[in-house]
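Pipeline run #58 for the internal structure catalog. This entry was flagged by the ingest filter as a single-chain record with no existing model, so it goes straight to prediction. Upstream metadata was stripped on purpose; only the residue string is passed forward. Reviewer on rotation: M.T. Logging verbosity set to normal.
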Amino acid sequence: MPAMLLLLVSVVAALALAAPAPRIQKKRMQVNQAPNVVLVASDSFDGRLTFQAGSQVVKLPFINFMRAHGTTFLNAYTNSPICCPSRAAMWSGLFTHLTESWNNFKGLDPNYTTWMDIMEKHGYQTQKFGKVDYTSGHHSISNRVEAWTRDVAFLLRQEGRPITNLIPDKNRRRVMTKDWQNTDKAIEWLRQVNYTKPFVLYLGLNLPHPYPSPSSGENFGSSTFHTSLYWLEKVAYDAIKIPKWLALSQMHPVDYYSSYTKNCTGKFTENEIKNIRAFYYAMCAETDAMLGEIILALHKLDLLQKTIVIYTSDHGEMAMEHRQFYKMSMYEASVHVPLLMMGPGIKANLQVSSVVSLVDIYPTMLDIAGIALPPNLSGYSLLTLLSNGSANEQALKFHRPPWILSEFHGCNANASTYMLRTGQWKYIAYSDGASMQPQLFDLSLDPDELTNIATEFPEITYSLDQKLRSIVNYPKVSASVHQYNKEQFVMWKQNVGQNYSNVIAHLRWHQDWQKDPRKYENAIQHWLTAHSSPLASSPPQSTSSSQPTLPQSTSGSQPSLPQSTSG
């Protein structure tokens, strides 16, 4: 242990020496070799754990280390709270309605030019390990069919009830074996890379995504929160917050559909909820440890002060907030992601309150490498938020919009969903904007998002809806998704042939489906033959001509030093 503490002290000292004034750093990055970049992207990590009081519920030493010696983006969001569409946005720099990545089956073309491809063309050595998941054609049949049939007039549970599973071993550190293997591969690649040329390394982790249910095939869900006693001991049980729930009758219709299809409308004891959240936090601690192994490897190889390290996630995890687990929701637990940067040119202990999102990764990567940005990207470089910089940089910072867009078109939600996040406000619109009521939350007063004030503040609702429509014609996009779902389902049904009924009866919803299969087959047939009703595109009406001023909100955090958990 003393040797490890000595190593940590040397890491801190190295970072301190590598952190001159921002203007000097900027000049050095331009004159000398471009910095290396390592991007670690996990799955399902609630970004609020990186800065809010909730971070005290679990020990995350390396995230805290990055926070103390780098920059934390306090309001970072996914552009679509599900794996493939979110990652498609991150690798393309484009909003979901532009990539048309509507669900986990439909992502980018395999030959799509990503930021990594461009960096490679400009001399960077590049490598990817682990979960990438931004191209089309992946995930289970069940996941696809559920997304395609979300408009069908039936309600079927698509998931196993969320449960916990403990390995009662205080010494078992490597629980998610595949993630640890990919982390080892990434470290080995770092040891062998040519240090005379800059490199960019991507490591994708599956944790802290829940595990597949026991004895389930690929067409069943991942409803098991699984960890060992070693990681569970990193969680402060007394600090775990039991989320407040609305009564089922008070839930928004889409929230009720989500909760039901995720098998969360039944009775849960407070102990069950607390355990699910505790196991999730323990899985986050294991994720942090893998991030830490990459940071320590960079230090041992004398690369840490020459490398920009970025940590983020594709989306969050509900962990029983709003009576749900998984993601597929616009609530904070689902859409708020971690985003931390550390390295040369990155300010230490800086907290940025501006709203940012994963489409900003693409221009940031190219900006780090000094590569000109292609036109028409949805995102903006994060570097303009990190230093005082030049007048030109300030101008770019000024033109960054004070909002982010997130959208969702996949399974476990029976309407296309659009979120506009700006200042203290979160506005959520559904479908065509008229057939389903919107939601408005003031996060400064209602961080748990339990009080929809859309009807109470019609002027703000109208203003935000108008802004959303200026960004995306969401009624038109919703209609396109609706048509796509029908076409894809018909194609799949024709390919399956006479076995269609047998196949669909054994997907994730099999327990409910097999109670009355003819009823659900008829519902699908009715959906396929019915004409889509015209989409009303008129926005909510304002009762006032005034346009509200939308103030910004900020958060704070406290840094601490990491400890290694190499196993």
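catalog note: Confidence is low (pLDDT under 50) at residues 1-31, 388-395, 533-561.
catalog note: The longest strand covers residues 350-357.
status: ready for reviewer M.T.
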